[in-house]
């Protein structure tokens, strides 16, 4: 990118972050104190191997593809802003885009575990969005499960020779929905229904979430495809370097 394009990108991201702060102050992932302690610990432990591999992935990107670090910062800001916007849904959580699919498809899903936990940590501290005790659960659903599915869907579409923008749309959309499938499972597991147990509770939360989350996922898919088209126009060299466009090798 030229210096002018970099300046415009930074200004644009700054405005997006400001927008995110203004609109997302009362938004929640799984809120502070909502999950019993044992579930907070279990989800946190499950995140550890993904975070270790994610750190290695980002370290490799920083060492081998320094020109792409601005794009890496951009996908972090993108996830921060989208996941800070919310539509009230059910007690203990809310519906909102995740924004993690973009980074997963560009840099691989492992990198997004680190980006995602940083986003969630800042939101918990600065916006009361989510929580510190539920950081592990929120990280697993939004920064691990969703990104891995997004990456898998995108690579499958690529292998099947499906149009790249269709693959990007499906990756972002389905990754968003899978995040909320996992969130519903996390809440249902912690609070099983008196009739039907965990399964009935999960189905109940999935049904309630679907009302707001399905249209949000579609919107996120479209928005992510638009962002990728813009990046292909202004940062083709960087996308080629990280392997998103033909001619490079992507970090996994």
List keywords for this structure.
252 residues, mainly alpha, Arp2/3 complex 21 kDa subunit ARPC3, two-stranded antiparallel ribbon, 9 helices, 2 strands, disordered C terminus, transmembrane helix, cobalt ion transmembrane transporter activity, transport, ion transport
Task: Provide an overview of this structure.
This protein has 252 residues and is mostly helical. The chain has a single domain (29-242), classed as Arp2/3 complex 21 kDa subunit ARPC3, CATH 1.10.1760.20. Helices cover 74% and strands 2% of the residues. It has 9 helices and 2 strands. It has a two-stranded antiparallel sheet. Helix 5 runs antiparallel to helix 6 and helix 7 runs antiparallel to helix 8 (197-234). The radius of gyration is 18 Å and the shape is globular.
The total count of helices amounts to 9
Could you name the ranges where pLDDT drops below 50 across 5 or more consecutive residues? 10-28, 247-252
Strand order of the largest sheet: 1-2
The assigned CATH architecture is Orthogonal Bundle
Give the termini separation: 24 Å
N to C succession of SSEs = HHHEEHHHHHH
- Radius of gyration (CA) equals 18 Å
Describe the sheet with the most strands: 2 strands, antiparallel
**CATH class category:** Mainly Alpha
Q: Tell me the β content.
A: under 5%
CATH topology: Arp2/3 complex 21 kDa subunit ARPC3
Shape: globular
- DSSP E strands, number: 2
How confident overall, as mean pLDDT?
82
Structural class: mainly alpha
Oligomer: single chain
Helix % is over 70%
């Amino acid at each position: 990118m030229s210096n002018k394009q970099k300046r415009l990108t930074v200004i644009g991201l700054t405005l997006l972050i400001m927008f995110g702060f203004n609109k997302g102050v009362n938004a929640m992932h799984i809120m502070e104190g909502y999950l019993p302690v044992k579930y907070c610990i279990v989800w946190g432990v499950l995140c550890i191997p993904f975070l270790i591999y994610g750190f290695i992935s980002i370290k490799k990107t920083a060492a081998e593809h320094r020109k792409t670090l601005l794009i890496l910062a951009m996908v972090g800001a993108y996830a921060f802003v989208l996941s800070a916007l919310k539509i009230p849904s059910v007690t203990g959580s809310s519906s909102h885009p995740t924004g993690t699919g973009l980074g997963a498809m560009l840099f691989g899903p492992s990198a997004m575990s680190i980006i995602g936990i940083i986003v969630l940590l800042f939101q918990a501290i600065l916006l009361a969005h989510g929580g510190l005790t539920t950081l592990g659960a929120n990280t697993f659903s939004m920064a691990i499960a969703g990104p891995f599915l997004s990456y898998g869907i995108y690579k499958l579409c690529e292998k099947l020779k499906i149009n790249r923008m269709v693959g990007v749309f499906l990756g972002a959309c389905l990754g968003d929905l899978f995040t909320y499938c996992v969130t519903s499972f996390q809440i249902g597991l912690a609070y099983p229904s008196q009739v039907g147990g965990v399964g009935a509770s999960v189905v109940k939360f999935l049904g309630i979430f679907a009302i707001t989350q399905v249209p949000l996922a579609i919107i996120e898919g479209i928005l992510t495809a638009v962002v990728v088209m813009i990046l292909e126009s202004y940062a083709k060299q960087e996308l080629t370097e990280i392997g998103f466009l033909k001619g490079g090798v992507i970090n996994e």
